[in-house]
Amino acid sequence: MFYYKSFIVFSHNFFCDILYIVFLAPIISKILAPSYTSNELSIMINYIRVLGISIFFVFTINIYTAVLNANRKYVLARSVSCIYSLVSIIFISLFSKKMGVMALVLAFPISYFIQLLFVQYGTRQYVKIHFTLNCFEHETKDLLIKLGPVLIGSATIQINQFIDRMLASMLEPGAVSALSYSAVFNDFVSVVFVSSIITVLFTELSETAAKSDNIRLTKFLRNGIININIILIPVSIITFMNSTSIVTIIYGRGAFSSDAIHLTAQALQFYSIGFLFEGIRELIAKTFYAFGNTKTPTYYGVLSVVLNIILSIVLSRFMGIGGITLATSMSALISSFLLLRSLKSILPEVKFSLLFSSLGKVVIAGTIEIILIFFLSKISFFDSQLLKFIVTVSIACLVYLLSLKFLKCYEIIQLTEKIKNIIRRK
């Protein structure tokens, strides 16, 4: 059991934030949508007030989720997010005819409240809330100091996204929507692949860093980098070479025109170049966090955002929407390189030369995958684009894994042995 003294401070602050949002909703609405009519503003104000209630629930859920991850209860921490989808479906089915979009808006705070009940129950053996009037104790002050750079970094990312949308609005019609649709898939890759790996690794990194076992930590980090490469390189290749198919399968219906498909596919194609670098950047940033260093990732994060904005302005003039997403990928590459270079300051034991053998095998297998996908794309073995995509991806992934096995990639051999052991036990 441990005490969450900081929980009281942040709960109080977020409760105040909710009050601010509720009472300042009219001002916020006018800032976000200055061209809206009075009727549209009224609707938006109601939405903001209802959604504002979710802030406290989301914040508290994140605290409990961190506790679950720290205690290796990953299944519960991940599965509670399904509650939102379930509640949304129920609310839309039952109340959409009478309430319209408000049914979906109401689903947000209610689903988050239910999630909160689940994670609170799941952490009952680890967490005991300690109420105190002395909010700013030593631990809380230390946490606030470390939190400052992280908040600055998050704010700059939001500014960057706002500027990207502003630049897209200056391009051809539909560019803003295309950027948003492609960003959804980019976020999907980040959540499903990157976050899942890093959530598990961060627990190990934090515990090992606390014990000052740098040799073991270096091993975890090295394995993490290799595993991210093994997973994200084929994902990037498949997305880059099949961006049009992916967009058509997901969005290509109704009012989604061929021009919209082309724009979204172009944006997604250049987003895919940065999948790997975003994964490495997140892993190295978490390593700094494990050592209690939040300043270095924030410094390079702000630097990459500034660079991203400059590149977006320049490249969008020549490449359109593709230039904006390419700028995002390039800034991810540069920031991940800078973070890797700075890693020596906290972890002198790390030697990147030890990665070259495994990474070289991954690159060779990835090259084989590129050639295979290229030839498969020329063969019309299915009329259905969905079936063709599924078969192409399945064959490409199988050949990719077999190539790594043939090249004797240690991580794949280790995974194969684990699967064999599980089958033997059954």
From TrEMBL:
It comes from Eubacterium callanderi. PANTHER family: LIPID II FLIPPASE MURJ. Keywords: Cell membrane, Cell shape, Membrane, Peptidoglycan synthesis, Transmembrane, Transmembrane helix. This is Polysaccharide biosynthesis C-terminal domain-containing protein. It is found in: Cell membrane. The chain crosses the membrane at residues 7-28, 48-68, 75-95, 101-122, 143-163, 183-203, 224-254, 260-277, 298-315, 321-340, 352-377, 389-407. One of its GO terms (molecular function) is lipid-linked peptidoglycan transporter activity. It is a multi-pass membrane protein. GO terms for cellular component: plasma membrane. Coiled coil: none annotated. Pfam families: MurJ (PF03023). GO terms for biological process: lipid translocation; peptidoglycan biosynthetic process; regulation of cell shape.
